[in-house]
What does this fold into?
Amino acid sequence: MPRINELTLLPKLPLLITESADEFDALRDAFEEEIKPRGIIEQIYVHDICSIVWEIRRLRRCKVVIINSAFRSALEHLLARLLRQPGEYEYDVEDEAQALAQVWFTDEAAKKRVSELLSRVELDESAIEAEAIRKSSSELELLDRMLTSLESRRNKALGCVAEYRASLAQQLRESTDRIIDGKGVLRLEDAASQQSTAA
Amino acid sequence: MASERQIAANRRNARKSTGPRSAEGRKRASRNAYRHGLTLSIASTAAFAKQLDKLVREIAGDSKDAIMLERAREIAQAELDLARVRRAKVALIERASAFGELDPAQAFSTVTEIKRFFNALDRGRLIVPKPTDPSATMPSQEPDRTAEAVRRVLPELRKLDRYERRAAVRRDLAVLDFLIEYNANTINSCARAKRSQFF
It folds into this structure.
């Protein structure tokens, strides 16, 4: 799908086939509206900020899904411990735990049974979420590191736009002042004396 | 500890281990350290070189100053490097989403499977393990599938993140240098303009 309003010189941000180009365009338009980039350098920074924000969103979505998808195995693990009677091993109740975890997502009766099992040891459903987070902690840690890095780059890029704009304005002001003060240019009398010497 | 004779023998033998001798072997060995090609200069392909030149022109504007052009080239090169890393990231996720993992599945995925294979072989039975299909364990629905793909390529994404950060730092430094050069050029051109008023 062709992307509208894309600055042809800057490389387009590649999107996953499941991501919406319209959503990305809307995000970029919002940033352009807010920052109002002037010149190619500022456009580069705005493009960078949009790309980073888009990736942050992508990773945050993944983080939630990774936790959610670990729910079933987390529940199986918890149930195996809760269903086990004294003298039994976890693999004795493995099948039952798997079956119960399978229907827990859709069956109200299964949900009630799991709640009862959890409340026996004074736990509630947040224990399942905690176990899911624990199970996916290594991936979540990596994701968090990447998110931290991206967030710091986004903030830096935002700072760079402001810095670039301020610096450019300052330099232009200084240049103008130099011209007005006559610093760095030949003064009229110097020019006249040079002309007379030459003559 | 090795004796004098052993050390001398080791040295003699080491002199024979000088790597591949055939042209084909040498060519293969020359790519031993090649990982992903992201450190290659982007100007090494014709299409990129063209895109780079266009971006340089846009950044440098009408300037013919060699230093300004060089600074603009540094910015453009870093910007296109960033784009290349971003494309690589998306391509990795798409590949993992399509095939389940980046590398093709091995016949034996664990040491236990290899042991089992040889034990069976000793007993005169040939049990060839069925190749596992990593894509079969991928969720079929979105956004779960993409999240799972991201999870499976997280270590690679983290490595690419390092390259992306480096390219961003290079670009930011190049922008600063460009600004300094721009300032120097502005002062000079203003001075020239002022001078031309008097002469």
About this structure: Chain B touches chain A through 50 residues (CB under 8 Å). The two ends of chain B are 87 Å apart (CA to CA). Residues 43-100+138-198 of chain B form one domain. DSSP finds seven helices and no strands in chain B.
